[in-house]
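One such given next:

>
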Amino acid sequence: MSDTEKSSFDKSSEFDFEPIPPEEQMARRLRLWKIGLLLGGMVLVILLLIVGMIGYSAGFNTASEDGTTIAVGNPDNSSAEQDIPDEALAYQSQDVVGEGQIPDHYRGTADNPQAVVVEYADFSCSHCIDLATDINDIYNEYGDRVQFIYRHYGVGFTYSDVTPKIAEAAYVVGGEDAYWKMQDKLFSDTTWAQGSYMNDSELMDKIRSYGNEIGVDGQALVDAYNNSANNGIDAKIERDRDLASQASVSGTPTVFIGKESVSGTSSAISSKLDELLQ
């Protein structure tokens, strides 16, 4: 290539380019950042508005004639409003637990409870005994609106495996009324919390005497206790423990009101129920 051609090529390949000063580059970047932030903020606001409208529609409340706030679609302020877990009520059905099996035991209302209290406890646990001493007042105050379910959860005391079998044997022999009488009897007897040793003969005698005290046949109670593998007792205790495991229960008493865990004291339970039922 001649020098003349080379010179011509070099001139034709030049670009008319003027470098952008650093200050202008920075200004342009800032403008882009501002535009990006503005667009992002607009998208976020729109999303929040959409979520808010959905939540408002789902939770829209109206006032009844007496001024009580009730949920639309649930005018009787029933269980749906309190976010009651399905499993809390499911095991009262014989269809669910199976023929010949033992359903959940509960006190309080059976129909459309406004709240459900589920207690996991051990008859040998001193804190459970304290709660049992006070909870009758709660039953009396809230029993027409609330259902109280009791489930067994042994935590490894000397008689943690024995006492629930005694309680369930009372159910097998005498039904629900006998079960609750036996529960009160077990919690009021300090033998279990103290862990005082009994041989098999002494234990059978104690169970037999319990039966007589609560109005069922003492020997029938002993027989039901000893046949726990075949009459639904062991299956009931195992089911309670499985449900406790699913709920991450690790100690006693553990109390749930709806889906929320609350302290296992009568004051905490009353306070939470007042909050829900006001």
Observations:
- Strands lie at 61-63, 69-71, 105-108, 115-121, 146-152, 254-257, 260-262.
- The first helix runs from residue 3 to 12.
- The radius of gyration is 34 Å.
